[in-house]
Design goal:
Layout: H1 2-5, H2 9-42, H3 45-93, H4 97-100, H5 105-147, H6 149-196, H7 198-204, H8 207-259, H9 264-301, E1 323-333, E2 336-347, E3 351-355, H10 362-369, E4 377-382, E5 385-386, H11 392-396, E6 399-403, H12 413-418, H13 425-434, H14 438-443, H15 461-474, E7 479-483, H16 491-503, E8 507-511, E9 525-530, E10 533-538, H17 539-548
Subcellular location: Cell membrane
Transmembrane segments: 12-36, 48-68, 127-146, 152-170, 238-256
Domain ABC transporter: 324-548
Length: 549
């Protein structure tokens, strides 16, 4: 947090200066009050006129002072919150894929919106008020020490008691903020699920059930928000009771001092200093607890995890010149064994089709080969280098994925192929040609620079799938992983897309339930999974037996 606040030292100094402007304004008000009391005591109209003139000048000064202070604070807060948003986004974007995919994407959206808004609203407001009140308290004690050391000691003892109370409160405040953050995450996830599944809800007339579920989620979030606000107010009230008792004691002390010759103006000033010092602490300590609670949120969403180096734990570069070999590879979900002693070889440039009944372990096998899953037994190696020693970034830079559900950015066809990388024009044009996108680009007014609508809704399913394949070709991916890449297409389009896969020079590892006569049997090998065992067959032999049967 210290690094975050001091990242812009010049603006942070301006922020502190803005804080002192508030303090100066407050003590100026107290000074005018004392001058007015003194003028009344003197009964001198000329002196009273001077005090009125000073008061009028202050009335003009106060709004200017506020405006300057506000501008200085907003500039610093704006830039610092941008830093927090960037840190939070960097933390998510650089997260290892396995760790990222373990949580719902709506949780990350909640972190970037709800948590950062909470941090902005509570941390900076709390920081400003805490600084203002602590500075004013210290100045009040310092002034009291010169005017009446007994009152200064009494106010200092009060501060010790209130500090001890605040320490007791801070853990609960942090816990409540963490719970509120989790409720916001759950609420965002529930809302996303409801809106993403709206078509199903409407067609099955179950909107009311999801409405009730959503309302429960809202109630939980609002309940936690109320608990956090109530606890903050409770802290203030406890401290206020102590402060009130202190003010009564000060009044008794000053009443005794009046009998011993204390002037009205000095008595009024001392009372203001003492009562204000209590109010400063009433405001300061809950703010301090809110700051600490907000820092818990900051660490959660923006500070790197201790295991952030996980994504680069492999030290070896991924090299695939010859083959990927599996030896005695087994994998289990809990106690259920999915794969048993799998042993086969993936040769560079060959095409492999993974077959098997639903739930046999096809996706598990492709995840093992794609380094998505690493908690397996046995050995997987690429040209003799153990998969676990291979750097994840190096691996991902040389492989590409084609899924049944293609995601396209709301951007140009070019950027959806190049994925915002500096890709030579000849590679993009080659990818367009190989994937049969020339006709699509030719039909568009802006050609390859035509803007796509949300997730490519202005394209057909086959066109969207071709763009996803073009990505792999433009990327120069050595291995193309295809998970049911044609299952959502009609037979004609599916046949065309599968033909594109098989015409590539890349190594292709695909999962598909479909069989396109004259096309699917062009795979080099079939990896069939039965009862956890992986059996490898030449494709022509496998499909010939299937057809004969």
């Amino acid at each position: 947090m210290k690094e975050l606040l001091l990242r812009r030292k010049g603006k942070f100094i301006q922020y502190l200066f803005a804080t002192f402007l508030f303090v100066g304004d407050h003590f100026a008000q107290m000074g005018i009050f004392v001058l007015l009391l003194r003028a009344i005591e003197k009964g001198d109209s000329k002196h009273f006129g001077y005090v009125v003139a000073i008061t009028v000048l202050f009335i003009f000064y106060a709004p200017i002072n506020f405006l300057i202070s506000r501008l200085l604070r907003i500039r610093y807060m704006r830039d610092t919150i941008l830093d927090v948003r960037k840190q939070a986004f960097d933390k998510i974007i650089n997260m290892p894929f396995k760790k990222f995919s373990a949580r719902s994407k709506e949780i990350y959206i909640s972190n970037l919106i709800n948590d950062i808004n909470t941090f902005e609203n509570k941390f900076f407001i709390s920081l400003l008020n805490y600084l203002i009140n602590i500075i004013m308290f210290l100045l009040s004690i310092l002034i009291l020490a010169f005017l009446d050391y007994k009152l200064a000691i009494a106010m200092a003892l009060q501060a010790v008691i209130l500090t001890a109370l605040a320490t007791v409160f801070v853990k609960k405040a942090s816990a409540l903020e963490t719970e509120l953050s989790e409720c916001n995450e759950n609420f965002t996830t529930d809302m996303a699920n409801t809106f993403n599944g709206m078509e199903i809800l409407k067609l099955n007339h179950i909107e009311e059930k999801f409405k009730d579920k959503s309302m429960e989620s809202i109630k939980r979030a609002e309940s936690k928000k109320f608990a956090a606000a109530f606890f903050t107010d409770m802290q203030k009230h406890v401290i206020r009771i102590i402060s009130f008792a202190s003010s009564v004691a000060v009044m008794i002390y000053l009443a005794y001092s009046f009998l011993n010759g204390l002037s009205l103006s000095m008595g009024g000033f001392l009372f203001q200093l003492c009562s204000s010092s209590g109010n400063y602490l009433i405001n300061a300590f809950p703010m301090r607890n809110q700051m600490k609670a907000s820092m818990t949120i900051y660490r959660k969403i923006a500070e790197p995890d201790e295991n952030s180096e996980e994504q680069d734990k492999g030290s070896e570069e991924f090299c695939f010149h010859k083959e990927i070999t599996l030896k005695a590879v087994s994998f289990s979900y809990g106690k259920k064994e999915i794969l048993k002693d799998a042993a086969f070889t993936i040769e560079k440039g060959k095409k492999y089709l993974i077959k098997g009944p639903s739930g046999a372990g096809k996706s598990t096998l492709i995840n093992l080969l794609a380094k998505v899953t690493e908690d397996y037994r046995g050995e997987i190696s690429a040209d003799g280098i153990d998969f676990r020693r291979i750097n994840e970034k190096s691996f991902h830079s040389k492989v590409a994925f084609v899924y049944q559900d293609v995601f396209l950015f709301e951007d140009t066809i070019r950027n959806n192929i190049a994925l915002y990388q500096e890709v030579p024009e000849e590679k993009i044009q080659f990818a367009v040609k190989v994937c049969g996108l020339e006709g699509i680009c030719g039909d568009k007014k802006a050609g390859i620079d035509e803007m796509l609508s949300e997730n490519g809704k202005n394209l057909s399913g086959g066109q969207r799938q071709r763009i996803s394949i073009a990505r792999a070709i433009a990327k120069d991916a050595e291995i193309l992983f295809v998970d049911e890449g044609t299952s959502s297409l009609n037979e004609e389009l599916g046949r065309e897309i599968e033909r594109v896969f098989l015409n590539l020079e890349n190594t292709v590892i695909a999962i598909s339930h479909r069989y396109y006569e004259g096309v699917t049997d062009r795979y080099d090998y079939v990896l069939e999974i039965k009862n956890g065992r992986v059996h490898q067959f030449p494709a022509q032999e496998y499909f010939h037996e299937v057809v004969v049967c």
